[in-house]
Amino acid sequence: MSFRQRSPHGSTRSSPQHPPRWAQARKRGADGRRRRQNEPESSAFEENKPGPEDGRLDSFTTPEGPGPLSRCLDWGTAVEEDEMRTNVHKEIARHRRKLLINEFSRERKSSSGSSDSKESTVTVELETDEVVLMRRQKQINYGKNTIAYDRYIKEVPRCHRIPGVHPRTPNKFKKYSRRSWDQQIKLWKVALHSWDPPTEGGCDLQEICPVDLCEMETESVGSNSTESQTSCQDNDDTCSGTPTKVRHVDYQAEGEFDLEVCLSEPLKEFDTVS
Amino acid sequence: MGETGKEEYKIQSFDSETQKLLKTALKDPSNVDLEKVANIIVDQSLKDSVFSKEAGRICYTIIQAESKQVGQSIFRRSLLNRLQQEYKDREELRTRSLQAWICYVTFICNIFDYLRVNNMPMMALVNPVYDCLFRLAQPDSLQKEEEVSAGRAADVPVVLPRTCKKHSPGGAEKPPLLCAQHLLFLLKVDCLVLQLHRIGEQLEKMNSQRMDELFSLLRDGFLLQEGLSSLSQLLLLEIIEFRAADWKMTDAAQKYYYSEVTD
């Protein structure tokens, strides 16, 4: 499905024939404003930027700058991209530190004799291309900028997530092919639809399932409930509220951990990670 | 916000309803129309030179408050886009009112100074700021202006220059006031050197080539302008030395420019 349109210079927003379903659940319009739930809005890809009005170059490079700035005639957007770029660089550094800590603690474990077949002590190459990271971050932002995502993280705290059942944000720092990444994003966003706000055509069955599993999960974790609760409390601050990229770095970086490891050594792991 | 708050943000010149709106924007940004607030601030900064010198501060605070409260940046986006609009129409603005133009330059430099992105200045503003400073420094305007707006001499220390021989031919005795053209030029130079004191160092880091060009323009202005008032000369000389000293005040400069010296 392709809803990419560029609105002609000077015209007001044209409404496409049929905005995609996910567009209606978007929390914010393309201009960054929060939308009320039932506001019909055109596709996210519709551009409302006017064409280049003056004779300026589409992109320009300042001598001491980081490189060519993208064609962006709008200061508001340019600064936001700037911000995203610097945030991405911070996240790379942070991610690397976490991997180092992770490796260090693994080495400690294996040297003390415990066997852990999940580990790969091979250092993995990270994705560091800024262009790629920015693109991936934008795609992640589109997914997180939805009412469904908001509802999801409120309903299912990070520590209660079941891998394979609850959607997990793809890790932008891992090396993936373009197709692989795009597919992961697509599947992730589709999975998030389970938390779409109820509409007339809504699927109630989908909404019930996650809740049921959550309840099952708390029951089965009976013995560890105190521990996981304390660690959950720590995470509640980070899990609740409007998601920001920075908060979710922790989560993404924890891609190396899975729930079982979390539960078996909750306090120790969280100490080193958070 | 008591009197200190008003004083800090320089919002005394707004009417009380607007002051209330601004205070709400500072405390509870999600409950105000932030685009409207941005427009109010920009409009005022084009009229009120005192406000334009420090408006960056209130903008910074609102941005932080909004980011903390709802994790958005609607205010910043509206502010920047409005600023960009004015920038696109800056020639008209300048023709319409030199004072408003000077206020605009002061404002955009103040924004550049205060609003940073992850501790870096905003890249998108670097070239526009330079463009504005270049425009301010262009020497052509000395001849063109014929009117003087109601003197902003309150901001500028009045110094008794030599009688303006250039503009009062025949050496007629005139009271020791700056003539219109000189006053206007002085206002521009004053604005220029103030901005360079505040943001020159950062600006140079972002693009040193343009700074070099700007300063050669200033040196030409200093050396080649006929009949420049002594105050203008002094201001230009000081900023040239300031930059030469790596944007720092030296003791010698302090003594020469800023102390009372009886000869």
TrEMBL record, chain A:
Disordered: region residues: 1-74, 220-241
InterPro entries referenced in this protein's UniProt entry, alphabetically: SLBP1/SLBP2, SLBP_RNA_bind, SLBP_RNA_bind_sf
Domain of life: Eukaryota
GO biological process, one term: cap-dependent translational initiation
UniProt domain Histone RNA hairpin-binding protein RNA-binding: residue ranges: 129-197
GO CC terms in record: cytosol; histone mRNA stem-loop binding complex; histone pre-mRNA 3'end processing complex; nucleolus; nucleoplasm
Family of this protein: Belongs to the SLBP family.
Protein's recorded name: Stem-loop histone mRNA binding protein
Source organism of this protein record: Taeniopygia guttata (Zebra finch)
